[in-house]
Amino acid sequence: MAQTSSQTRAHLHTLxxxxxxxxxxxxxxxxxxxxxxxxxTGQEILQYFTSYGxxxxxxxxxxVLVLMTYVAVEFFTVGQAKKFxxxxxxxxxxxxxxxxxxxxxxxxxxxxxxxxxxxxxxGAVFEEHYGLxxxxxxxxxxxxxxxSVWFGLKSLVDVIGKIGxxxxxxxIALGVLGIVRNxxxxxxxxALLPELALTQASTNWFMAGLSYVGFCxxxxxxxxxxLGKTARSRKEAASGALVGAIAFSVACIIVGxxxxxxxxxxxxxxxxxxxxxxxxxxxxxxxISVMILAGIYTTAVPLLWTVSSxxxxxxxxxxxxxxxxxxxxxxxxxxxxxFSQMVNIVYVINGYxxxxxxxxxxxxxxxxxxxxxxx
Length: 375
Fold this sequence. Notes:
mainly alpha; 15 helices; 0% strand
């Protein structure tokens, strides 16, 4: 009997350890998904956070922390509870039949356009840092992503869940390095901002923050709903979402400060993070360029998977052929416009549409809570 009790405790301990590992894997997948070409290059943080100074870094950062945590937990836990046949049904759950259908198809278009931004980002790294043709970087990324999606969601999660935390650590370290090397530059940069013609995501930091969460939501909706379906409990799903959202928000603030401290150097560049790294050491910059490409890859894979899975079941022949076709079309589109321009157009416009989804989600959550408390 004592032996059986001991075995039971050992089994429960194993389950607990496994649960923690799964939570960290989910968190890593979220972070890796969000740290794409825009974040990893610094261009996204520059336009949404740093360009507004202190208010942008801390105000937008806090707003993103609160709202991103709510959004990630909602998508993950609803996906775990409802186990939709199609992840895109999450839009119908929050928005009803007609608006849900609109968001379903709009999100597919936006997610695909976001994939084209990843292609543009890879091209910009090859052109600005390596001095090679942007076509090499763009085509190379598309090929790598197409092959990865070919093998389906399980392989995708296994890969990006492990790469994500490493990218966050390196991005934060580079942000801290930018601050430490020029701490007085934060105040100086904040004072200089009105004189610099920086591209901004909106007319003020608050709307920029809402827009930022808005476009991230359209990315995350179907992907997190699908991941939530694999979680064994609501607690496991919510914990993974919470850890991932907090880690990402903190990374945004630190990187934002690092860029602000060096704003005169990075303000008008395509890849601000590489400028920070190059100021320290050429070898470091080369290592960071690899990190940036990894960040682009870890976001591009689930983006492409999300679009293909909307039309065909994972791993089926039609799914695979559509994936290759989309990768090819996305490469052509992504290599037409400059990377910074792609970020500003695609993310900002879709971010405002995402705000409407956020409002509808909050209304649905409030209604659900009222019903639970009703006698």
